[in-house]
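TA notes, week 10

Several of you asked for a full example with nothing omitted. So below is the full record: structure tokens for the whole chain, then the designed sequence directly under it. When grading your own attempts, check the secondary structure regions first.
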């Protein structure tokens, strides 16, 4: 492919991503895989160049552009070498016409700016930087020094803020290593590891991972529990929850069990566990504003209506989770969001609605914010999270 043809391909890929973001379609990574699968003629260098062009545009524009061409024209305004490729030659993009639609604006959607927690508002550009690859050493199968040695060829380094965290450069092919295949390491962001540490999960406990998804935090909890006790991974998403058994087998997490829930009827399925759990982790659905480094196109999906829906869901899930906690137990509420509506305000609301509870606070990495803790790329070198720990009085 010529450089200009790569630009046109990036425009075509962006068109599909924009439509999916508007209509609630597949994630950008899924679209990209399908896009290149249908274009076998594109070599590895072509695919990498096209993807880089598209993702640079996604990171640049906070508000969803009208089209892939508008997004790329907006990029070309500050890149003369890119603008020169709009000449219509070969398979390249047609010349730019006067008055043609052009993407413009901030990297952060304007309607969201004032909703971010005050401590991070001056650091929001860090949310769009490229993220490294974080790993968690699986204590059930390896020690950190052993994993470091096994991954030395990839440039693995220990992250001192979490006892089992390693970091690799972005794009490292850890999936092909023996350490990963044998379950000695798991891909998991540092922030997620810190939240699992804050749960206080220990051997012999009964632990409920209420919004387990594919089970990343479930596996971390199993390691903290040393495979002793009871660990329930519950979720309403059959597809994602169905990935956990295979992952648990590879990790040697023998105590992990799954429980599929019906949306809106979670309390019914969990009734037998009411008041019996030493730890309940509520990794609630959220806006995902803290994960923009990895999923920048989610900015184009988020709307005030969507935000209102997930905050209402968070309130309901916290109410359900509270009924599961045993006397002397702990509930950890976490969201991969840095919006106060999903973080500090939700913690305050929970305590207002549940007078028999307290938030004792959490020592360790991050910044205290309201009743909980903020983690963010600029301050902590991880994805953006808010979490708060609660216990019944």
């Amino acid at each position: 492919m010529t450089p200009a043809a790569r630009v046109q391909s990036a425009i075509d890929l962006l068109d599909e991503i924009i439509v999916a973001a508007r209509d609630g379609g597949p994630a950008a990574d899924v679209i990209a895989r399908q896009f290149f699968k249908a274009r076998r003629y594109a070599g590895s260098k072509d695919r990498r160049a096209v993807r880089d062009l598209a993702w640079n545009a996604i990171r640049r524009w906070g508000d969803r552009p009208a089209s892939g061409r508008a997004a790329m024209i907006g990029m070309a305004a500050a890149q003369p070498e890119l603008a020169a490729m709009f000449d219509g030659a070969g398979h390249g993009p047609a010349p730019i016409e006067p008055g043609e639609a052009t993407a413009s604006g901030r990297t952060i959607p304007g309607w969201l700016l004032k909703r971010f927690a005050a401590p991070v508002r001056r650091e929001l550009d860090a949310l769009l930087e490229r993220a490294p690859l974080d790993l968690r050493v699986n204590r059930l199968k390896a020690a950190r020094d052993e994993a470091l040695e096994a991954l030395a060829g990839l440039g693995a380094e220990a992250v001192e803020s979490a006892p089992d965290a390693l970091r690799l450069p972005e794009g490292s092919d850890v999936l092909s290593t023996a350490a990963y295949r044998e379950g000695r390491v798991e891909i998991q962001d540092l922030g997620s590891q810190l939240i699992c540490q804050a749960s206080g999960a220990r051997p012999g406990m009964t632990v409920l991972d209420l919004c387990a998804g594919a089970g990343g935090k479930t596996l971390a909890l199993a390691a903290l529990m040393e495979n002793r006790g009871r660990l329930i991974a519950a979720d309403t998403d059959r597809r994602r929850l169905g990935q956990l058994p295979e992952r648990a087998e590879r990790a040697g997490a023998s105590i992990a069990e799954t429980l599929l829930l019906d949306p809106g009827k979670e309390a019914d399925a969990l009734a037998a566990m009411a008041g019996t759990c030493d730890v309940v982790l509520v990794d609630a659905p959220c806006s995902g504003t803290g994960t923009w480094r990895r999923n920048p196109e989610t900015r184009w999906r988020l709307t005030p209506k969507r935000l209102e829906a997930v905050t209402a869901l968070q309130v309901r899930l916290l109410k359900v989770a509270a009924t599961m906690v045993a006397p002397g137990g702990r509930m950890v509420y976490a969201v991969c969001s840095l919006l106060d509506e999903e973080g500090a305000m939700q913690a305050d609301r929970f305590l207002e609605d549940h007078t028999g509870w307290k938030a004792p606070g959490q020592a360790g990495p991050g910044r205290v914010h309201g009743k909980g803790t903020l983690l963010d790329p600029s301050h902590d070198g991880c994805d953006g999270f808010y979490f708060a720990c609660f216990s019944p009085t």
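The first strand starts at residue 133 and ends at 137. Use that as a sanity check on your answer.
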